[in-house]
Design goal:
The protein is mostly helical. The chain folds into two domains: 83 residues, Rna Polymerase Sigma Factor, Chain: A, CATH 1.10.1740; 72 residues, Orthogonal Bundle (Arc Repressor Mutant, subunit A). Helix content is 69%, strand content 0%. Helix 2 packs across helix 4. The longest helix has 23 residues.
């Protein structure tokens, strides 16, 4: 049975806690994965998700378009993730937990070397570039979803992603880190 998300959002906007609970059930794993990739710590990720869900529940009446729910929810989650790190007076360590899954042609040592090289390469990117790369490549969000989450135009996401990937490619090629081949 296919869930009608727009109907659930409409019900939640009209005060249905049960409908909001169903929406949470649909997005909770994705929210947690997103938060983990942003903050890099499972406990802080759980705190950010909890804070975002509470805030979304309180503010759902302000959501203008029901079809924008997911982007709106993840925008709130993004702010909650950033708040977790502001409270600790730290920058978001987006490069701390990068893992690469490569094809069967590489052995485990080659995978580890590539992963470590990419982790080093990520340090040359700005925080926003890292976030966009991780959201697109690791979490597989589309540019429109990322644009909604970060509150920037879709075209900006695409251009920043392209520039960030070019920086990474250039770095990896110049250093030949981890056996990277184009």
């Amino acid at each position: 049975m296919k869930v009608d998300i727009n109907h659930l959002v409409s019900l939640a906007k009209n005060g249905s806690a049960d409908a909001f609970g169903e929406l949470y059930s649909l997005y909770s794993k994705e929210m947690y994965c997103y938060a983990c990739s942003v903050v890099g710590d499972p406990v802080l990720a759980e705190d950010a998700v909890s804070e975002a869900v509470l805030s979304a529940f309180k503010e759902i009446g302000s959501l203008r378009k029901t079809e924008s729910f997911k982007g709106w929810l993840f925008k709130i989650l993004n702010a909650a993730c950033r708040k977790q790190y502001k409270q600790l007076n730290q920058d978001i360590p987006l490069d701390d937990e990068i893992r690469i899954e490569t094809g069967g042609a590489r052995d485990e040592i080659g995978q580890l070397e590539l992963s470590m090289s990419l982790k080093e390469a990520m340090k040359i990117l700005s925080t926003e570039e890292k976030e966009i790369v991780l959201l697109r490549i690791v979490n597989e969000y589309g540019s429109k979803d990322i644009a909604e989450m970060l509150n920037i135009p879709d075209s900006t996401v695409r251009s920043k992603l392209k520039r960030a990937l070019e920086k990474l490619r250039k770095y990896m090629t110049e250093t030949k880190g981890g056996g990277y081949d184009e």
